[in-house]
């Protein structure tokens, strides 16, 4: 037993040693650049999938192994670790830092929830919409971490208010509070049998949720140990947790900056196919926004039906809120919003810079009309989305966080001489994901090594027999592959490993690379099944309301819906956008080896 305990303790060290030794014959026996690059690719891929080393540490291996194997000079490898992507990320993190520092995310989230109403289904949709919107500009991890405390506070207040009202109703009916009685026994005198028949619980509908709300829930919160008053309360907590993590992931699909996988794809694609010039912030938004909206709505319906039932009549009932629960929802959210007070100067400036950044991104090269980049004809192609992000990002370090004038306690107006910017460098450093910077850089270095060694061309030639399969089968298989792989591996690691394989595959079978790469990139974000599959999943799981079986059951449905919608978009609105049915000249140039 001691021997096995030692193995368990040193399993990561043993995995590292055995991986390096077992694969070592590959470069020694074949002794070609392709074999040496394949050895590096396999080692890095296994370490990423198993997390034998931290992801960012594994990402440094190409910088060590490529120069030693004569694949690329050290200076060339080092240049791959910092690219246009990193400048874009820096600008976006500046925005995210200011948004959280001045609580603009809370104001946006609560305001959107107030706009959609307080019916339980609409409340869920409100939180999902606001979370998805925030996730378009922030990472899904940050978004879930920001919104979840608000949701938890709202849910707990709702449960408390509901319990108080039910206790009062029990006292009115029985003269004393009897927790063993069900609410159905307390009926108004003028209630008729016909009314009772109409409100008979029906599984799969809202009335079913009312029925289960009257049964005592024996389970306790895994973290707090507090017992849920009713089954419905527990289901409500599960629903809210899952809707936050799923919508934070879905929202990230819509923008290049929304998730690291989109950024990795854009940088890899633009580096491999510089002649395309078709993937930018605007074009990505147009192709992914419809898909994200459809997935969000279908996920909302699926989660609502799964946990609380879906009653269309109750949802679209006109008039003011009628139920005690709905009044509790409205009161809690209004109180939370009032706590924020009037919108402050810092929030206004952050919001203005946020809007300006989005407008500059959309109008740079919209495609429908000449963008502002066309004004710089002499330097066309020099300014990218990262240029815009840096411009706005630097302004957060320049614009004062306080107005120049202030009111003294005596009512006199004086000048404020203490200058401080909207964000400081220390605050920025807390938000900057340096591990992602190194991880993505290692992926770029790995991709460059595959090109320089000829491994990409070798893989493409070996995969050319797949051209006999229908294109939709290849796209479906690649989408299912990345969706499955991303459940057990990092999203960024998954897309980094597969991009150098899928791009040569498309070239080998003479299919527009975007036809395979776009759906594969979108499906890489569908990590919905397990807490370890996505940081936002882990955040909501830590609140103790969910079991792993809850996430698997709900996430499997969202995964299926996501892949189906991506397939639908790939064969409908994305086809005319990029002329996907035509094999482009910019891909032919790369395939012939005339492009670096």
From TrEMBL:
Query: Known InterPro entries for this protein?
Result: Na/sul_symport_CS, SLC13A/DASS
Q: Which domain of life is it from?
A: Eukaryota
Q: Give the signal peptide range.
A: none
Q: Which UniProt keywords apply?
A: Ion transport, Membrane, Sodium, Sodium transport, Transmembrane, Transmembrane helix, Transport
Q: Which GO terms describe its molecular function?
A: sodium:sulfate symporter activity
Which subcellular locations apply to this protein?
Answer: Membrane
Membrane topology label? Multi-pass membrane protein
User: Where do transmembrane segments lie in this chain?
Assistant: 42-69, 81-99, 119-138, 239-265, 285-308, 343-362, 382-399, 436-459, 471-502, 514-534, 554-575
Q: Which GO terms describe its cellular component?
A: plasma membrane
Kindly report the protein's main subcellular placement as a broad class: membrane
Regarding protein family, the annotation reads: Belongs to the SLC13A/DASS transporter (TC 2.A.47) family. NADC subfamily.
What is this protein identified as?
Answer: Solute carrier family 13 member 1
- List the source organism: Myotis lucifugus
State the taxonomy lineage. Eukaryota, Metazoa, Chordata, Craniata, Vertebrata
């Amino acid at each position: 037993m001691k021997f096995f305990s030692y193995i368990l303790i040193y399993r990561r060290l043993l995995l590292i040693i055995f991986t390096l030794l077992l694969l070592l014959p590959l470069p020694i026996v074949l002794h070609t650049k392709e074999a040496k690059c394949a050895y590096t690719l396999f080692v890095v891929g296994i370490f990423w999938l198993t997390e034998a080393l931290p992801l960012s540490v594994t990402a440094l291996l190409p910088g060590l192994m490529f120069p030693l194997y004569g694949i690329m000079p050290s200076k060339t490898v080092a240049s791959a670790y910092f690219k246009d992507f990193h400048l874009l990320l820096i600008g976006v993190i500046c925005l995210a830092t200011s948004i959280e520092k001045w609580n603009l995310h809370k104001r946006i989230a609560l305001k959107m929830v107030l706009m959609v109403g307080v019916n339980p289904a609409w409340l869920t949709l409100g939180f999902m919409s606001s979370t998805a919107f925030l996730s378009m500009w922030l990472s899904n991890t940050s978004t879930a971490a920001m919104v979840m405390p608000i949701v938890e506070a709202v849910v707990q207040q709702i449960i408390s208010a509901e319990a108080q009202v039910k206790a009062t109703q029990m006292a009115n009916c029985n003269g004393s509070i009897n927790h063993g009685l069900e609410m159905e026994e307390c009926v108004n005198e003028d209630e008729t049998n016909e009314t009772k028949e109409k409100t008979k619980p029906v599984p799969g509908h809202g009335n079913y949720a009312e029925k289960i709300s009257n049964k005592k829930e024996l389970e306790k919160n895994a973290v707090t140990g507090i017992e849920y008053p009713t089954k419905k309360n527990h289901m409500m907590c599960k629903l809210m947790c899952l809707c936050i993590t799923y919508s934070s992931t879905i929202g990230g699909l819509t923008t290049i900056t929304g998730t690291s996988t989109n950024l990795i794809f854009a940088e890899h694609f633009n580096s491999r196919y510089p002649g395309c010039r078709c993937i930018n912030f605007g074009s990505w938004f147009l192709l992914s926004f419809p898909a994200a909206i459809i997935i969000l709505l279908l996920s909302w319906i699926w989660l609502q039906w799964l946990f609380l039932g879906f009653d269309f009549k109750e949802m679209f009932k006109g008039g003011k809120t009628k139920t005690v629960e709905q009044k509790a929802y409205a009161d809690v959210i209004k109180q939370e919003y009032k706590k924020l007070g009037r919108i402050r100067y810092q929030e206004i400036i952050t919001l203005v810079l946020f809007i300006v950044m989005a407008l500059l991104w959309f109008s740079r090269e919209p495609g429908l009309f000449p963008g502002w980049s066309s004004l710089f004809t002499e330097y066309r192609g020099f300014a990218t989305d990262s240029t815009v992000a840096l411009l706005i990002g630097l302004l957060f370090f320049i614009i004062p966080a306080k107005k120049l004038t202030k009111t003294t306690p005596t009512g006199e107006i004086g000048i404020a001489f203490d200058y401080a910017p909207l964000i400081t460098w220390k605050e920025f450093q807390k938000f900057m994901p340096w591990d992602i910077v190194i991880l993505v850089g290692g992926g770029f270095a790995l991709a460059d090594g595959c090109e320089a060694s000829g491994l990409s061309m070798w893989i493409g030639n070996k995969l050319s027999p797949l051209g006999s399969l229908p294109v939709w089968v290849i796209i479906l298989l690649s989408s299912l592959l990345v969706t499955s792989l991303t459940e057990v591996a990092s999203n960024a690691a998954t897309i980094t490993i597969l991009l150098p394989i899928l791009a040569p595959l498309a070239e080998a079978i003479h299919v527009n690379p975007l036809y395979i790469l776009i759906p594969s990139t979108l499906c890489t974000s569908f990590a919905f099944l397990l807490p370890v599959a996505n940081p936002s999943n882990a955040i909501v799981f830590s609140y103790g309301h969910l079991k792993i079986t809850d996430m698997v059951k709900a996430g499997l449905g969202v995964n299926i819906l996501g892949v189906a919608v991506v397939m639908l978009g790939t064969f409908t609105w994305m086809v005319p956008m990029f002329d996907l049915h035509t094999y482009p000249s910019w891909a032919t140039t790369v395939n012939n080896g005339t492009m670096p």
